[in-house]
Design a protein that fits this description.
This protein is an all-alpha fold. Helices cover 31% and strands 0% of the residues.
Amino acid sequence: MDIVGGADKKDERDKVVRIVKERQILAESSLDYNPMGIFPEGSVSNGRQVLPFKRGAFEALLSIKPLALQYEFDNISP
């Protein structure tokens, strides 16, 4: 638990994980929901390294489809 707002941060993380899990279940079980894209790192990096994955992307233990994005850096250099 974090010293500053620890319980609130944990509750917020748990809430996000629950929402992601519910959305994954809906997307897999119904054609009414499009697949959801998640950066399992919780962010993007400059492409020089892979950031640690967050648990929320995998919490539902449902099938995943790995995807790699490559894009040009017009305004920001890695």
